[in-house]
Specification:
This protein is α+β, with helices and mostly antiparallel strands. An eight-stranded antiparallel barrel has the order 1-2-3-4-5-6-7-8.
């Protein structure tokens, strides 16, 4: 019998509870391997299964994590680029004196060319259109306006350089899949792009 994987669960039309139990029961390395194996159609299925509620900022930076301390989330997107370029990290931190938002940027092999893609993550509560997409938005319309983690790249606006082509006027809406896994959907100027990405929080 073939071992059960996230892909086989999605193919079998398993519900989110079964998917969550599976992902919570395997190792960090296995979660990475299985989420990184999902193509666009599978990620779209996962996005549609995940609820629009049930995720908050502590999913990305646990309450026990100090301010200006990086938390890494390992991602795989569905953009039409060669495989290695689909792998990236979103790195989050809690700013000083604020629990209402997070700061972050994108790390990967393209950062030296495209740029860091800084963002502010915040709840969507109060914006009805956004709430229907997910409870947290990763907003590239904003960049950190106070200190970030020591050693992170210099904060620059997303209108600057080649990152304008990727991050400018973009928002990612986030849904919870399991304890460590979330899924995002990219929007440009409020228009869904039908591209998704999985994130796995570091163990």
């Amino acid at each position: 019998m073939n071992p059960q994987t996230l892909q086989t669960l999605l193919d079998a039309k398993a519900d989110l509870a079964a998917i969550c139990a599976h992902l919570d029961g395997i190792s960090h390395e296995a979660r990475l391997a299985e989420t990184r194996a999902l193509g666009r159609a599978a990620q779209r299925k996962l996005w549609n299964l995940a609820p629009t509620t049930g995720i908050d900022l502590t999913h990305f930076v646990p309450e026990s994590t100090g301010a200006r301390t990086a938390v890494r989330h390992f991602g795989r997107n569905t953009l039409p680029v060669p495989g290695p370029f689909r792998l990236f990290e979103k790195r989050f931190c809690r700013p000083e004196n604020s629990a209402a938002r997070l700061f972050g940027y994108n790390e990967g092999i393209t950062r030296g060319v495209i740029g860091p893609g800084f963002f502010v993550a915040k709840p969507t509560a109060g914006n009805k259109l956004w709430e229907e997409r997910g409870a947290i938005v990763v907003d590239y319309f904003e960049v950190p306006d106070t200190a970030v983690v020591e050693g992170w790249p210099r904060v620059i606006p997303n209108s600057q350089g080649l990152q304008r082509l990727v991050y400018f006027h973009t928002r990612d809406f986030m849904r919870r899949v399991s304890k460590h896994v979330s899924i995002g959907s990219a929007h440009k100027e409020e228009k869904p792009l039908d591209h998704y990405f999985t994130l796995v929080r570091e163990a």
